[in-house]
Amino acid sequence: MILIISFPENEHVEEVRRHLTAPHTVIDLASFPTRLRLSARSGNGDSGIELEHAGERIDLDDVGAVWCRRIRPFELDEELTHPTSQMFAWSESNEALLGVWYTMPCFWMNPPLGDEVAQRKIHQLRTAEAVGLTVPETLVTNDPDRARGFVELHGPSQVIRKAFRNIEEAPRETALVTQEGLAQIDGVRFAPVIFQRFIPGVEDLRVTVVDGDVFAARIRSHSDHQVDYRAGLATASVDACSLPDEVSTKLLELMARLGVSFGAIDMRLTPEGEYVFFEINPAGEYLFVSRRTGQPVPEAIAGALQRHDAERAAV
């Protein structure tokens, strides 16, 4: 049995499900704890964990592979109107589910702990550098003097600033720090900011890794989008490409050290032929690449889940 933790209307999930032939089910954590029921038994020789939703009962001991793909937040019972009651219910629900996930010894794409660790930008960069990948000169700080010094060292419009995570309520696009931006540098005292030396590139690279398979694509966008290719994807050319074996090997080592089997990696190829690592998103999108390149990323995800599910069933 393959368990998919996501939500049915997620197009990335639906694309993969079209390639699954093994039994599988999708659970939406937005239905927990109001509609999704959890029962975990221990003691007196009776041990087991079950989930039940809409009449379907899932014995988690039968699950051989889990795909966790961009979950939705819990929807608490509307009777819980007091903030303290809501906080307690959310905390207890989260603790119970984490206890369930951590006790499942099957294959995960990605394990909860690995996913949590892998998305941390500082850890990503240090680990990437440790495996031999080239990373941009980077400063993460909430010290205005250090931030000012970093920008002045490289020069205005030669440093980009970006957020750790873009949230819907306060989006922050990656942008160059201009002379005007330098005048506002004292604002970093409110929260740490990621500053990186701007890396000119011949092309951007989106590398999707699925359980050891590496799918690389080159993205060539208009010069207006050299800082962040995402804004220019509609007019960019996206083509499949190959990476040097040395780069692929280092990316696979990065995945192993981060403890994840899936990741969408952003890199840039410089005019000097150097491959520069920017970041890895352990739940990154891949359809915008696979649909334009024909790369079988959804098939690879489905194949990995079915392969590991069959391996566990055979034990």
What does this structure look like?
The structure is a single chain. Among the domains are: 2-110, no CATH class; 137-197, Dna Ligase, domain 1 (2-Layer Sandwich), CATH 3.30.1490.20. The chain has helices at 11-17, 83-102, 112-118, 121-130, 144-154, 179-182, 245-258, 287-293, 297-314, and strands at residues 2-5, 24-27, 37-41, 48-53, 56-59, 65-68, 107-109, 138-141, 159-162, 175-176, 193-197, 203-210, 213-220, 237-241, 262-269, 275-281. It is globular and about 65 Å long. The protein has 315 residues and is α+β, with helices and mostly antiparallel strands. 31% of the residues lie in helices and 26% in strands. It contains 9 helices and 16 strands. The model has no long low-confidence stretch (mean pLDDT 92). It has a 5-stranded antiparallel β-sheet with strand order 14-13-12-15-16. A 4-stranded parallel β-sheet has the order 2-1-6-7.
